[in-house]
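@channel anyone free to eyeball this complex?
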Amino acid sequence: MLHPDGPYTKFSFVVKLLHIKSFYRISNVGFSAFLDLLSSVFPNCCIPTSYDEAKKVIRALGLGYESIHVCPNNFVLFRKELAKKDACPICKASRWKDGDGRRQIPEKVLRHFPLIPRLKRMFGSKELSAEAQWHKLKRKPVDNELSHPADGEAWKDFDSKYEWFANDARNVRLGLATDGFNPFGKMSSSYSMWLVFLIPYNFPPWQCMEQSNFMMCLLIPGPACSGKDMDLFLQPLVEELLDLWSGVPTFDALTGKEFDLHAAVIWCIHDYPALSTLSGRVTRGYYACVPCDKHPCYKRLRNKICYIGHRRFLPADHIWRRKKDFDGQTEERAQPEEFTHDEYMQQLARVEHVKPGDHPNNKKRKRVEEGQCWKRRSTLWDLPYWSTLKLRHNIDVMHIEKNICEALLGTFLDIAGKSKDSISVRLDLEDMGIRKNLHLKDDGNSSYSVPHAPYMMTKAQISAFCSFIKNVKFPDGYASNLASVLVLMNANYKH
Amino acid sequence: MHKQIYEAIAELGNFFQQICAKKLKLDVLNRMRGEIPIILCKLEKIFPPAFFDVMVHLSIHLIDDAILRGPVQYGWMYPVERRLLTL
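replying in thread with the prediction:
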C-alpha cells in the first residue's frame, strides 16, 4: 500500500504516474525532480525517488524489451556470438557512434519485444485463456457464411495439414502486420521506422482486431528500410516463431496444468509496397501483380506500364472477347496462372544468394532474368509451415479502395498531377488505334488541341459536385474536414 | 455524366461495399467473382489504358483472397494504421 488509508497500491500509483509522464511528454529529468519532491514531502509513503526507480517497479511485469545493436550497413545483428564485437565482421564498420567506442553509444538499435513471455502471460489469466479457445470451443459456424478467419479456406486448409496443431484449441494463430511510420510527425519525411505487430486470431470477432490485443514485436530503426534488410531485422522474431512451432511449456490458469504451447503465423498484413519489403516478391514492373505469376496482363505504354486485359478473366465464349474496341485486338488468352509449389521453390532457389546488408558505395544494379518474380528468399520461408500456407500475404483492400477512388476523382475533376489523363495518354490511344474521338486534333500551324473526353466533368458539373460534397454531413470523427479541401480545389479552378 | 460511365462506377462502388461487409456469404462471393471482370471491362471501355495501374488490376483478386481469409476486416490496414496514428 502506498498509504494506509488510500485506495492506491504502490504499483498502481507508479503505473499512473508513468502514464501521465508519457502522455504529456514530461522529460526524464523533470519527472525525476517531481518524484524527488513528492518523496521528500511524503516520507511515509513509499514513493520512488527517481525515474529509474519508478521503472524498476514495473520491470517485474516482463513488458521490457531487448535492444539489439545493428551494423550501420545492415549486415549483421550484434547478438549471440557477435554480442561482444566492436565492428561488423563483414563490412568492418564500427558499431559505435564515437570512433574509439569508449562511451559505447550504438549507431543503430533494433528493439525486440519478446513474444513468448507475452503469449505465456495470456494463458496466465483464466479469462484470456478461455477467450483464446473461443475459435474452436464456442464459435458456432453458419453454413455459407464467413464471419471469422476460422471460416476461411486458408484456416481450414492449415487445420487439415497440421491436425496435431488444430486439435488443441489453445494453440495460437497469429497475423503478422507491418507498416512504416514517421516518429517525428510532419517534421521530417525522410526518416521512417518500421513496426512489426502480431495479431492473435484466436479471439472472438469483437476482440480479435482490438488494438489492445496487438503485440508489438519489433521496432526497426530508420532512416529507411530497404527490402532485403528486413530479413535481418526479422531474425529474432523468426527464431522465436521456430521455438513456438516446436512447442513452449506454458502454464494454463484455466486447467491449472502445464501444456506445450504452439503458435504459427498464418498470414501477413501490409500495404502493397511493403509486400515486396517483407516477402521479396516484386511489386512493380511487368510482374507487379502478385497472384498473376505467369503471363501477367501488362501492357507497355509510352511512358509507363498499364495492367489491362481483364477480358482474360471473362468466360471463353463471352461476346466481348471478340470485340476490337478494347485495345484494338481480340482476346483469346486465358487467365494468368499462379506458380505451383515446385515453381516457387525454383524461383526462390535462384535468389538464395541475396543476403541482407549493403555497402553505401555499392551502386551496381543487377539485371533480372525474364520471368523471375522473386528478388530474394525471405527469412519467413525458414518457418517449416510457410510453404504450405494458402494465403501468405494479404492484398490490402483499404489502400486499393482509396487509390482507385483517388484516381477516379482525379480523372473526373481533372486535378493537375492526380489525373490519369494527359497528352501522352491520348497518344497511346492513337498507337493502339482505338477511340478515334479522343485523339489529338490537328488545328493547323503545328498546334494540337485535346478534345474533351466523356470521363471529364465540365466546369458546371464540377461546381455542382463541389457544392454537393460541401453539404454532405458525416458522423463525428468519420471524415476529415472536406470543406477545407474544397477551398483548395476551388482555387485550382478559378482560371 | 453518361449513363454508361455512371453505371460502371456505381457497380464498382457496390462491389467494394459488399466485399467490406462484416459477414460475407459464400454464394454472394462466387457471384461477385463473375461480376468484377465485367465491371473492369466496362471501365476499360471508358478510360484510357494509363488509368489501369496495378491497384485497379488487384481488385480482381480480392474475391479469392476473401474466400481464403474470411471477412476483410481481419486482413486490412485500418487497425494497424490507426494504431500508428497515421489515420
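from a first look: Chain A has 16 helices and 14 strands.
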